[in-house]
Amino acid sequence: MLTLLAKLFIALNSENSPKQISYAIALGMIIGLTPMLSLHNLVVLLLAFLVRVHLGAFFVGWTVFSILGLLFAPLFASLGHYLLTMPSLAGMWDALYQSTFMRLAHFHHTSTLGSLVVCLILFFPLVFLLNYLIAEYRTHIMTYVLKFRIVQTLKASKIYKLYNQLQGA
Amino acid sequence: MKKYLRWQGLLGLILFLALIAGFIYVFAGWLIKTGIEQGGGWYLGAEVNVKEVNVNWSPFTVDIVEFQATDPNAPEFNAMQFKQAKAQVNLWQYLLGKVIVEDLTLAELEFGAKRASKGDVYRSADDGKGSLDETVAKVKEVELPDIQQLLQNSNLITVKKAEQLEQVYNTEKTQLSQLKDNLPDEQKLEFYKQKVKEIQDTKIETPQDLVKLKAQLDELKKEIKADKTQLSQAKDQLKTSKDNITLAVTELKQAPDQDWQAVKTKYQLDSFEAEDVAHIIFGEKGREYYNQGMDIYQMLKPFLQSDKAAAEDEEAIVDVGQFIHFTEQAPQPDWLIEKGLVSVKTAQGQFSLNLSEINMQHWKRNQASLIEVSSNQLKGNGSISGKIDFFKAKDGNLLSEGKWLLEQLQIGQTQSAEAGETVEQAAQSALSLVAAKLFADGQFKLNNFDIDAVLKLNLVDPEFITNASKGWQQKIVQALNDAGKIPAEIDLTGNVMSPNWQLHSQVDEIIKGSITQQVDAKLTEFKADLQTKLSEKVASSLKLSNEQAGEIANLDAWLNDADGTLDNLLNTQLKSAVDREKEKAKDKVKDEVGDKLKGLFGK
User: B235-250: per-residue pLDDT in tens?
Assistant: First the structure.
């Protein structure tokens, strides 16, 4: 938990742009809320590692949303079931079902589809919200927080420097 | 581009994925083993053990070695165990959400085998068994009761009714005695007669004499009428008493028959029919197999349930989600065993099952499942062959047919010995089958869980033993042993979950033809003895009743006599005496008037 908070703190107070952090958390949301062993999560992982998003924030997002995912799992399964059994969408599902990709991606699984749909709907609103919150934090709160002795000690530590180097900041 | 992408991240991803893949590759066996043990334990509610799981990646094959699932009802035994199960799974279909087992080999599948050590039980299962054993035990424990002991039993109706008769008589007698004390006796009747005579002989000289006589007459009439009222009340009471006593006597006379019916019911003297013996021989074993089959069905139920039933379980699935399948060009069922070979080990020997197209969504591939049973390694050079096919339509209708033939299966002694039961121990039971050769053939049809099955059995050279001390029970066993062969037929109809059993056996004939008569004779003798004793009780009560009835009859006669005498005094003698006195008085008045007229008018 402390490591998680430290990662978040480092991310918020780093030189990274707010977009790098917010996209990272949003990608972490997808992998956290949807069943982990799904094909789309391979794409999410690829994006997280390949695109210059903040990896620390990505893992923070993954962890936090995994916990939330457990709470909302029944809701996602119900939504997925509703969509997959909706008569007006039956033709579309039938057509997609003939594609191996859809079946391999488990889009015909209620939890996978339900959670992914929720994640896709929330993705950009979450990015914009986080952008705004990070900008606000850096303008109004960060200077005050950086004055804490504990924060100064943390920033002076070798671990912090090494972590920043690994981030490619 | 470099501003947005970090290529070293891709390397990191590849390393990350390789790490996961490596972990799965190395620990796949352990992961599956843990999954089976934990998941199986959770599902069954008892310890599940797997020695090891080996995974081969091409073709993808899972090899489970020494699986044991503890029976939660009897933790020292396994509900199911097998030595090895090897399943070749279509990995591509598995990734698409279907479990297609292309080839399955299951070696030494066994039910109810003893465990090396007692397994842990996580939750107790409902038992619901044992009632059959209790029923059989009840049937076996047929003992005739002791007559003396029965007669001492205060619950016998005869005893109660005899006591009731005595009580009724005493009550009535008390009431009648009280009435009798107030009734006119012989002396009083003589007194009345005397008085009437006196009145008749009275000479009336003057009108005052007449007035005086009338007063005497009125007094006497009043007394006689009062006594008559008493007599009338006594007669009414006597009638009531007679009715009460008659009712008590009738009830007492009926009591022995009622007692016999009660004794027959209590000691099951009617229930030890030949059919029960047949159930002991065939029914118990048949039901045991049926119960075992139901246990296996309950374990496999989640895999066999219909789409409708699955929809009912939706609430349970909602947490983890489920696959929704749509129309496919080449549809596959959710799970399928394309072909398989299962060897089953039982106390009777080893069977082998050839499986083909085992699944519960037959409409998808339009092929029925087929199971072929065969063995020539059963006890006593026994053999079995059979074939069962089933097809489940999309609407949930299950159609199935099967037939089988069993020959020369050794049952009884060997079986008991294997179960750790010696012949001496078996003989502790009222009736045990020590040895026999079993021949059987049967067929069934199942249409949407309605079963229609016939199983014909033939026990050849049966050898029964008994610990029964009664001679007639031993003779039943002797007759069964002498029979040479005992055919039987079991019919099952109705819902497969709770079928109606009908058992027809020649055991009925064997027993009815030879031994039942002896049993009947014993029962008849017993009945006669019991009824004689009961009749004695009735007779002694009735004898008392007869003496008392004599007293009552005497009283009745006396009352009638007394009543008649009083009537006679009142209506005849007393009336004539009064009339006579009146006539005398009239004549006298006439004479006096005549004399006076003569004096007036001369002679």
Answer: 788 788 778 878 887 8
